[in-house]
């Protein structure tokens, strides 16, 4: 996130001697997602982050593809994904392509006996149900319903949940997640027309330095495999850090909608972007106020992208009988639009309380075995009058 942040103790000059009270050196590490070409931070560890004691046997968590090519409007009933105690095992990839993986998860338990690091993708974890704390070496972030947790690749983390009742919608992005470029000025600051600004960004707080030696299990994801590593020091041993690269959060409830006299196009809802996809937030807002306006969206054929909607809450104006946690996938190439009757019904309405996350990937998505298990097979006929 392009806001400079610092926590804990750091030396006045980078790459210089920075010593512990006992006279030995702290270990400096540069962390980034695009080499030396983009955002980075400098981290100061109590011990070098390199002390590997043992390696476990890697295992695959590669999505199993059930439908590689398709041209069918599809709906998945997301809350039919079974809750699972363990966080990593609870994550079920449902829609995937070479740019992103979309997963659903209903973890019941906090991560206590291992840490996790995704070395191949940034993660956006949308909290649909539940609350808790994201714990990292950078500090902690409290999260609650509606938060997007943005965890850059390479960040070691644990999730601590307040209760066993959790529902997560997770995007793994193989390119860095960023705010849309058109929202930022040449210096990276979010501009006046952006639907959110720096004050809305939750940054890590409460840095706790774990000066601990022992056996620390870190499960590292790379190229579809989980590599179990045993490190000799606690991964949250940061004494301090500074820079622009760190986990952060943004609440969908802080997204300020852009409205107009006539129906506004999807880009006004854009929240984040990665290479070849965008993430948008549909939030409660006043409807269009031209005297003859039609608030329901027009039919459209999204020729250049698939369109994924994840329904979070509220009454969806374009479709009845939508349930929380439902996903619709409208593939590029064939038109879709409001359900029968909903155009007339929308006329004269002044407000919508719909809440949803939309993802438009510019390359087609594949469906996994977990996706077809929770599919509403008749969805494609839902426009029949
Ligand atoms: Fe659409």
UniProtKB/TrEMBL annotation:
Residues 96-250 form the Homogentisate 1,2-dioxygenase N-terminal domain. SUPFAM superfamilies: RmlC-like cupins (SSF51182). Belongs to the homogentisate dioxygenase family. The lineage of its organism: Bacteria, Pseudomonadati, Bacteroidota, Sphingobacteriia, Sphingobacteriales. InterPro entries: HgmA_N (IPR046452), Homogentis_dOase (IPR005708), RmlC-like_jellyroll (IPR014710), RmlC_Cupin_sf (IPR011051). Its cofactor is Fe cation. It comes from the Bacteria. Keywords: Dioxygenase, Iron, Metal-binding, Oxidoreductase. This is Homogentisate 1,2-dioxygenase.
């Amino acid at each position: 996130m392009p806001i400079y942040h610092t926590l804990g103790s750091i030396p006045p000059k980078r790459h210089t001697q920075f010593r512990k009270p006992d006279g030995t050196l702290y270990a400096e590490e540069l962390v980034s997602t695009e080499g030396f070409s983009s955002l980075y931070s400098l981290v100061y560890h109590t011990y070098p982050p390199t002390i590997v004691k043992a390696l476990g046997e890697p295992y695959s968590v590669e999505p199993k593809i059930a439908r590689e090519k398709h041209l069918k409007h599809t709906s998945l009933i997301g809350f039919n994904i079974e809750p699972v105690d363990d966080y990593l095992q609870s994550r079920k990839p449902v829609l995937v392509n070479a740019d992103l993986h979309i997963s659903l998860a209903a973890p019941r338990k906090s991560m206590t006996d291992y840490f996790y690091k995704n070395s191949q993708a940034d993660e956006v974890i949308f909290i649909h149900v539940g609350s808790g704390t994201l714990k990292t070496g950078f500090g902690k972030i409290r999260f609650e319903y509606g938060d997007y947790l943005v965890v850059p690749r390479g960040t070691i983390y644990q999730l601590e949940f307040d209760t066993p009742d959790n529902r997560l919608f997770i995007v793994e992005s193989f390119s860095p997640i960023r705010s849309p470029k058109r929202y930022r000025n040449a210096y990276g600051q979010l501009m006046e027309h952006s639907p959110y600004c720096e004050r809305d960004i939750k940054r890590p707080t409460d840095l706790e330095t774990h000066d601990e030696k022992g056996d620390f299990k870190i499960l590292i994801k790379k190229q579809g495999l989980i590599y179990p590593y045993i490190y000799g020091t606690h991964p949250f041993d940061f004494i301090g850090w500074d820079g622009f690269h760190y986990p952060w959060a943004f609440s969908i409830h802080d997204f300020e909608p852009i409205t107009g006299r006539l129906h506004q196009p999807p880009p006004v809802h854009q929240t984040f972007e990665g290479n070849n996809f965008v993430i948008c937030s549909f939030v409660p807002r006043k409807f269009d106020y031209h005297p003859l306006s039609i608030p329901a969206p027009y039919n459209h054929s999204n020729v250049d992208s698939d369109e994924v909607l994840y329904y979070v809450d509220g009454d969806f104006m374009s479709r009845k009988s939508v349930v929380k946690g439902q996903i619709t996938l409208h593939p590029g190439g064939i038109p879709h639009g409001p359900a029968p009757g909903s155009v007339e019904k929308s006329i004269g309405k002044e407000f919508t309380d719909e809440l949803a996350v939309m993802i438009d990937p510019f390359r087609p998505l594949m469906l996994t075995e977990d996706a077809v298990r929770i599919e509403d097979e008749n969805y494609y006929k839902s426009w029949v009058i």
